[in-house]
Design a protein that fits this description.
This protein is an alpha+beta fold. It is about 55% helix and about 10% strand. The chain contains 9 helices and 7 strands; from the N terminus they run ααααβαββαββααββα. It has helices at about 5-30, 50-100, 115-165, 170-200, 210-225, 245-260, 295, 320-330, 355-360, and strands at about 205-210, 230-235, 240, 270-275, 280-285, 335-340, 345-350. Strands 2-4-5-7-6 form a 5-stranded mixed beta sheet, with helices on one face. Strands 1-3 form a two-stranded antiparallel sheet.
């Protein structure tokens, strides 16, 4: 049976039960007090109805009333059930459309905010997020296909040139093929890492984000020295819960971007960690050129490299901030990018605070200044 039919039968059953109870009340509290047998009373004529007479007159009327209540309950229950289930019909239609690939449809259920309205609004929100996610995945797949095709096309072109020119320097060809192959490997590893963080398939441990920031800074210090930059780190112990490897990758990407997208010389990178009542904060700032506000919203998108597509030894594959954003979201955090008034970028990562580790700490740890 359909839900509407079940509700109809339920409504009719309740109406019939209520009618039967009312008739039972009439019998119990009225008819049982009327005596049976011949009744004679002066001044009222020769006939007075007794209990049997009243039962014979009451029973057909009661049966007709119950029959009317049954019909009324079925018809009224069918109408009421239809009205009650109408929002579910709209939700079901929207679900079928979504299953067929149409994610742009919205229910937009009118009326007061009740349980069905909340269900419809939640479904609309889910459809909006799903549509946005699918569109983002399609853009990402298109960009990834383009980025992966580029090194393969370059390698094919180099091999064609070598085949047509047997006297070409083999050493130069091998070096260029190695560079192209390295870029393809880096891009593939970045895509795998991005997929891993999107699926949240990692073990969560208690970590100190300040120590991770120091490790990432020390790893990239030679690159900063080569470019004539200064890296400064400071902050408190910042306990959080997450994957040490992914958080290290996130911090390394931020510091690497701050080094690469900096002034040609005498630039600075600031790496700080702070503790707030419910969050820990990692901030990476750098000097550099002015960043337009409209560019900020696109920096965390896949395959975006600042205001232009840079090609050099440290340009990366355009997934640095996209990986940072994905890792941050996988750790239930937020990523904020803001331009510095003097030039450069300020990136702020907020992650949930691991309160247990904070309670066990006696004092906050101050970290030293690192300069090349």
């Amino acid at each position: 049976m359909s839900v509407r039919l079940k509700l109809t039968l339920s409504y009719a059953g309740f109406v019939m039960l209520a009618g039967a109870l009312l008739l039972a009340v009439v019998w119990v509290f009225l008819l049982r007090y009327v005596p049976d047998g011949a009744l004679m009373a002066p001044g009222y004529g020769s006939f007075i109805p007794n209990r049997s007479d009243l039962v014979r007159a009451f029973t057909p009327a009661a049966a007709e009333a119950l029959a009317f209540l049954l019909v009324f309950g079925l018809v009224g229950g069918w109408i009421l059930a239809g009205r009650m289930l109408a929002p579910l019909t709209r939700i079901t239609d929207a679900t079928r459309m979504a299953a067929n690939g149409s994610l742009s449809h919205r229910i937009r259920l009118p009326g007061r905010r009740d349980e069905l309205r909340e269900l419809a609004d939640s479904f609309d929100t889910m459809l909006a997020r799903l549509e946005s996610h699918v569109a983002e995945q399609r853009r990402f797949a298109a960009n990834a296909s383009h980025e992966l095709r580029t090194p393969l096309a370059i390698a094919q072109a180099l091999l064609d040139v070598a085949r047509n020119d047997p006297n070409r320097d083999i050493g130069e060809l091998v070096d260029r093929l190695q560079a192209v192959n390295t870029r393809a490997i880096d891009l593939t590893e970045a895509l795998l890492l991005l997929s891993r963080t999107d699926q949240r398939s990692f073990t969560r441990l208690q970590v100190d984000l300040s120590l991770i920031a120091e490790e990432a800074t020390e790893t990239l210090l030679p690159l900063a020295e080569k470019r004539g930059l200064t890296i400064e780190t400071s902050g408190d112990m910042t306990p959080t819960i997450g994957s040490p490897e992914l958080l290290l990758q996130m911090t390394t990407n931020l510091v690497h971007n701050a080094i690469v997208h900096n002034l040609p010389e005498q630039g600075t990178v600031w790496v700080t960690t702070n503790v707030h009542p419910e969050t820990v904060v990692l901030t990476v700032e750098n000097t550099g050129e002015q960043v337009a506000p409209q560019v900020i919203s696109t920096l965390a998108e896949p395959f975006q490299r600042g205001t232009q597509r840079i090609r050099n030894d440290h340009a990366g594959v355009g997934l640095g901030l996209a990986i940072v954003k994905s890792i941050t979201q996988a750790h239930d955090g937020t990523l904020t990018l803001t331009p510095r008034p003097a030039g450069g970028l300020r990136v702020t990562v907020r992650l949930p605070l691991a309160q247990v580790a904070l309670d066990r700490a006696d004092t906050s740890a101050q970290h030293t200044l690192i300069t090349p």
